[in-house]
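sry for the spam today, last one i promise. struct tokens for design, 317 residues
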């Protein structure tokens, strides 16, 4: 098949692009490299640097494409609180531009990568797709708005659409930005280097962590699964893990004696996140294969960032 992946040089985009290319598909990737790394892509992926709002570029890239994976986005919740206009322009505006270009060229299916963040704080767990979303950040609002645009424009122009609400994905290749790094690579790096693990609040908040290979399996299934147009599907492990438990596992697999600090001043985010897997099982034949402890071990083993030397300490006289 012929695929276009937006956000192809990002963490999930590159993992998907490389796997599709390994399977012998024709894969084009688009990314503006605002955070992505083109070196993560296999030479078999035809990469173009560009903005997802650039429709002339999209028209060219969409020629003869069967299915589009839309991952290009700004992805930091705290950053979205500071810059909501930018998040709206890229995550919502970019989605509308892409859908317009798909309408113009004619593409059979779009798989939109949404987020479990759209649910917000909910009493009842696990989170099933029929729960009314309570987005609590501009990032979450932008993903929910994009879901509606994908579905509505898709309906109007006969483009099959499916939204995958991915929960906390982790694995080798995940970026570690200096501010607000994702919790798993941050804890792993700190533990490997003997640094302190800083936990927000008391660490009793829970998340549903899903390994990148499982996410890629689900994304690939969504390109060809029959009768899934209109679907919203949770992509998750279906297992709820507290930050305290994550700390315990990270320390165990790294054999680390790192100190753990509980910072009561920081916002722990939503209190619980555990997703319901039923739709993914039924519609994609999806079953998570890598549970957290094994996923942490694979991340540590496969990602070179955990094997580099810690920066030298400044010499004090
Ligand atoms: P990422 O930041 O590694 O990937 C996003 C990519 O989009 C980057 O390579 C970036 O350069 C690119 N991009 C940003 N703005 C662009 C623009 N205007 N035009 C073209 N490219 C642009 O993040 P990721 O974790 O790989 O996330 C990929 C997608 O999955 C995002 O849509 C994100 O919302 C979604 N998602 C991720 C997770 C997760 O845990 N990683 C969870 C839920 C949903």
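last one done:
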């Amino acid at each position: 098949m012929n695929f276009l992946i937006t956000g192809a040089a990002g963490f999930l985009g590159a993992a998907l692009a490389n796997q599709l290319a390994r399977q012998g598909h024709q894969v084009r990737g688009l990314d503006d490299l605002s955070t992505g790394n083109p070196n993560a892509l296999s030479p078999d992926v035809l990469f173009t640097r560009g903005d997802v709002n650039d429709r002339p570029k999209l028209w060219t890239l969409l020629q003869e494409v069967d299915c589009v994976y839309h991952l290009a986005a700004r992805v930091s919740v705290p950053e979205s609180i500071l810059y909501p206009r930018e998040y709206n322009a890229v995550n919502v505006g970019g989605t509308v531009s892409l859908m317009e270009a798909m309408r113009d060229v004619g593409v059979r299916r779009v798989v939109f990568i949404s987020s479990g963040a759209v649910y917000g704080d909910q009493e009842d767990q696990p989170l099933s797709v029929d729960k009314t979303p309570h987005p609590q950040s501009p990032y979450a609002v932008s993903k929910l708005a994009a879901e509606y645009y994908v579905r509505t424009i898709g309906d109007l122009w006969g483009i099959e659409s499916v939204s995958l609400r991915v929960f906390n994905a982790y694995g080798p290749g995940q970026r570690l930005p200096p501010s607000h790094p994702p919790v798993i690579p941050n804890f792993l790096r700190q533990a490997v280097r003997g640094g302190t693990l800083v936990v927000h609040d008391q660490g009793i908040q829970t998340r549903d962590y899903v390994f990148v290979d499982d996410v890629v399996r689900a994304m690939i299934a969504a390109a060809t699964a029959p009768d899934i147009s209109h679907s919203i599907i949770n992509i998750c492990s279906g297992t709820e893990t507290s930050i305290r438990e994550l700390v315990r596992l990270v320390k165990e697999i790294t054999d680390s004696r790192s100190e753990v600090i509980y910072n009561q001043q920081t916002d722990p985010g939503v209190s619980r996140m555990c997703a319901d897997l039923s739709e993914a099982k039924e519609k994609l034949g999806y079953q998570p294969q890598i549970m957290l402890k094994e996923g942490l071990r694979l991340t540590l083993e496969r990602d070179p960032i955990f094997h580099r030397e810690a920066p030298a300490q400044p010499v004090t006289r």
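The two ends are 63 Å apart (CA to CA). ok im logging off now
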